[in-house]
Amino acid sequence: MGAVTPLGNSVAETWDRLIQGKSGIEKLTRFDATHFSAKTAAEVKNFSLSDYIQVNERHRMDRFTEYAVASSIMAIQDADVVPGETVHQERIGVSFGTAIGGIESFENTYNDLQNGGYQNLYPFSTTTVISNMAASQVAIAIGAKGVNTCVVLSCASGSNAIGDAYRAIQRGDAYVMVAGGSEASLTPLGIGAFCAMGAISTNPDPKSACRPFDQNRDGLVMGEGAGAVVLESLDSAISRQAKIYGEIIGYSTVSDAYHITSPAPGGEGAVRAMNGALLESHLNLGDIQYINAHGTSTTYNDRYETEAIKSFLGKRAYDVPISSTKSMTGHMMGAAGAVEAIFTLLSIKTGIIPPTVNLHTPDKECDLDYVPNEARKTKIKAALSNALGFGGHNTALLFKSFEGS
C-alpha cells in the first residue's frame, strides 16, 4: 500500500491520524478564496516528488500524477516487488483512476495561451492534462510493461480501478497489478464549480466543516491525494512470502441510470452493488462486520446510502458499524475509493474501525451506527467499501481477512 493524503504522506502517518480522529481539513491555501463561498479544503502538505524519484524535465507532471507516482512507488516497495527481478516487467500492470485529471495544468495552460498565444505553451502541455497520465507515468516510474488502464468514473474511479485490477488478475492478464486513484482539483475551477453547484460546505470552521450523517451538515469538503495498492493472486503472494493485508473477494459496479448528480431514491444502485459483491464472495450476510461508507456529508448521499445499507443488511443494519472517513480526509474525488479501500483493509488487519468525526446531532433519517467521534476496536472478518459517483456510478469492494495472517 501507498498513500499521499491530507493526513500524511504515507500509509502509516495517515492511518495513525485517522484512528485518532484527527482532521486534515484546514483553511484553503492553494489560491485566494476570498470571493469563493467555500474557504476550507483538505490539502496535501509538505509533499515533494523528489522524495520518491529523481525529477527532471521529462518527468514534468500535474500534481495529480505526482501523487499517483509517489503512492505507487510506496506500494511496490511495501509489497517488495522489484520489476524485472521478482516479477517480469511484462506481467506487471497498472490500473489507475481519477475523476478530473490535470485540471491545475489545464488552468495554467489556458492562462499561458491567453497571455502569449500558443507559442507561449509548454510543448508537452497535453501530457500534463490528460487523465491517463497517472497510469502512464506510474508505469514509466516503476517499469511496468503489462496491461495499463485509466478509469474515469467520477468519485468511484479509485474503487473501480482496484476492481478492474482484480479482474485482470483473475483473467490471467497480469501476475501483479498496481491499482489506485489520484486527484488534485483544489483549483479555482475545481472549487468554483462545486460552489456554483451548491454541493460544497460553506462552514468557515475547517475542523467542523465536514460532518457526514449529522443533521447540520451543509455539503462536502474537497480533498486531494492518492492511494495505491498492489494486487496479485493468493498463490503468488504466498510463494513470495509477501506481506498480505487481506483478500479482495468481491467487486460489483452498476449504474442506477437516474440522475447526473443525485443518487437514486433509496440508494437502489448502491444496494445492487453491495449485493453483487456479496454474491461473488460466497460469504454470508452475517460475515459483513464493517462498512466504509461513501458518506460525503451531503443531504441526499448520506440519506440514500443509509437507506441502501438498511436494504442490504436487513435486520442486521443497526448492528454493523459504519464510518465515513471523509469526515477527516475530505472528499478526495477520484482518489477517495482507493484510499478508503486501504482504510477498510487496515480496519480488518488491525481490528480498529476509524470514526466518523463531527457527528454530534444525528439526522433522524441517518440512524445507524456510524462510530461517532472515537475509533472502535473489534474483530472484523469481512468489510465493504462503497463508492458512489456523479453520473449514477455505484461500486462496492468486498475484502476479508487473510486466514494465514
TrEMBL record:
<dbReference type="Pfam" id="PF00109">
    <property type="entry name" value="ketoacyl-synt"/>
</dbReference>
<comment type="function">
    <text>Involved in the type II fatty acid elongation cycle. Catalyzes the elongation of a wide range of acyl-ACP by the addition of two carbons from malonyl-ACP to an acyl acceptor. Can efficiently catalyze the conversion of palmitoleoyl-ACP (cis-hexadec-9-enoyl-ACP) to cis-vaccenoyl-ACP (cis-octadec-11-enoyl-ACP), an essential step in the thermal regulation of fatty acid composition.</text>
</comment>
<keyword id="KW-0275">Fatty acid biosynthesis</keyword>
<dbReference type="InterPro" id="IPR020841">
    <property type="entry name" value="PKS_Beta-ketoAc_synthase_dom"/>
</dbReference>
<dbReference type="InterPro" id="IPR000794">
    <property type="entry name" value="Beta-ketoacyl_synthase"/>
</dbReference>
<keyword id="KW-0444">Lipid biosynthesis</keyword>
<keyword id="KW-0443">Lipid metabolism</keyword>
<comment type="similarity">
    <text>Belongs to the thiolase-like superfamily. Beta-ketoacyl-ACP synthases family.</text>
</comment>
<dbReference type="Pfam" id="PF02801">
    <property type="entry name" value="Ketoacyl-synt_C"/>
</dbReference>
<protein>
    <recommendedName>
        <fullName>3-oxoacyl-[acyl-carrier-protein] synthase 2</fullName>
        <ecNumber>2.3.1.179</ecNumber>
    </recommendedName>
</protein>
<dbReference type="InterPro" id="IPR014031">
    <property type="entry name" value="Ketoacyl_synth_C"/>
</dbReference>
<dbReference type="InterPro" id="IPR017568">
    <property type="entry name" value="3-oxoacyl-ACP_synth-2"/>
</dbReference>
<keyword id="KW-0012">Acyltransferase</keyword>
<dbReference type="InterPro" id="IPR016039">
    <property type="entry name" value="Thiolase-like"/>
</dbReference>
<feature type="active site" description="For beta-ketoacyl synthase activity">
    <location>
        <position position="155"/>
    </location>
</feature>
<feature type="domain" description="Ketosynthase family 3 (KS3)">
    <location>
        <begin position="1"/>
        <end position="401"/>
    </location>
</feature>
<dbReference type="GO" id="GO:0005829">
    <property type="term" value="C:cytosol"/>
</dbReference>
<dbReference type="GO" id="GO:0030497">
    <property type="term" value="P:fatty acid elongation"/>
</dbReference>
<dbReference type="GO" id="GO:0004315">
    <property type="term" value="F:3-oxoacyl-[acyl-carrier-protein] synthase activity"/>
</dbReference>
<comment type="pathway">
    <text>Lipid metabolism; fatty acid biosynthesis.</text>
</comment>
<keyword id="KW-0808">Transferase</keyword>
<keyword id="KW-0276">Fatty acid metabolism</keyword>
<dbReference type="InterPro" id="IPR014030">
    <property type="entry name" value="Ketoacyl_synth_N"/>
</dbReference>
